[in-house]
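Entry 14. Structure prediction run on the chain below.
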Amino acid sequence: MIASQVPRLHVAPRASRTYGDLASDLASDYGLTPDPWQQLILDDWLADVGGKWASLTCGLSVPRQNGKNALLEVRELFGMVGRGEKILHTAHEVKTARKAFKRLQHFFGAKPEDPGAKYPELNALVAEVRNVNGQEAVILKNGGSVEVVARSKNSGRGFTVDVLVMDEAQELSDDDLEALMPTTSSAPLGNPQWIFTGTPPGPRVNGEVFTRTRIEALSGKAKRLAWHEWSCEGDVDLDSPAAWHQANPALGSRLQLEVIEGERARFSDDGFARERLGMWAGAASRSVIDGETWRDVADEASLAVDRLALAVDVDPDRTVASVSLAGQREDGEWHIELDEQRNGVGWLPSYLEVRCQRNDIRAVVIDGASPAASIIDELRQRGIKVTTTGARDMAAACGTFYDGVMEGWLHHIDQPQLNAANSSARKRPLGDAWAWNRKNASSDITPLVSCTLALWGAQSSTVKKPQKRSSGRKAVVM
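Output returned:
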């Protein structure tokens, strides 16, 4: 088996260029060659748009001993040497911070004239190396530096940096973050970046910041956020080597199979799922539709060609709205996709009007008891007839959606926002049936709710035709 070099969850802004290759070339010259999975992350972290990092916030969740620290070394080496960045590397424990410093000191610790100097050209760049416990730092003549501290409520005072690294992020508290974040407010190069790396928080650690970062990344709302996660999902066989290889990109190289076998024998099931399979608490056991089944019905080439319906859902805070499309495919099976998602609700009426004018839409569906119901009057004023649903319709829609996925006749196109919504959505009782529960969801589920209603609208015989389609338009929503 080959360890997966591609994260199970991958979110990153689009960018036209990256310095990832330069960073790996520099590190490779000094014996630190990134693995393919590390290179993928570097390419995203160091992607540039208009002279700014495409990702202000970077998050990485990967099980221990896979090479996270080596990845941070490459990022820090490139930042301080290649760009003159000032970097603050923080960790939860003193011993972890000290270890990170020792790894960097390996490159810069000797004087260039020393006979034993391994990297004299790097040593020649050094202005100062501080090796005092609690004040470790490598400072270069070009202005670049890496300072290493253990986190505390006051650990950020006195620092002004370009890059803030928060290792062991599963232990990062709000107090710690609020002490550290101002260090980048006046980033010397005017191009700050925050990097969070760690493992899924356990039941006794302070993981709210790392968890919140993950939720934001998977919600699809964040504009400048990258997230990479190696993990398993759903009803996983904890004894399966295939699962071990999926969640551990360095398995077979720096991480050995025998070590994982020993961990499996000694860890609790929950501990092994979290520490070695990268599984976030509760994400697997409470999902209505398990991850494996959801992936089985993914089809990036899926396309609806008939019985097209649109549906709208708005989150309770009215901060984000989703429009989804459903319809029947040429093979007779059914298709769903997130058609559009934007902040706020003001864009919805005009967007739906154009969609109905240009496409042969059989229904525009809105749950009459949802926050989206507020746009119904304006749609009617624009001449668009809306099909509203009640509790009975919603229960039927959720049941049909669930059956379609479990029986394999309903397909999606593997969109991150919809995947995240399915992973976090839970049930709420609705009479003798159930519906999607917003209150207990860990991320935005408007893509899932709108897809559920769109499928109902595509299949129902009681919907209202929104309006006549303008002539000369395409009949399929792309």
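Residues 471-478 have pLDDT under 50 and may be disordered.
Filed with the rest of this week's runs.
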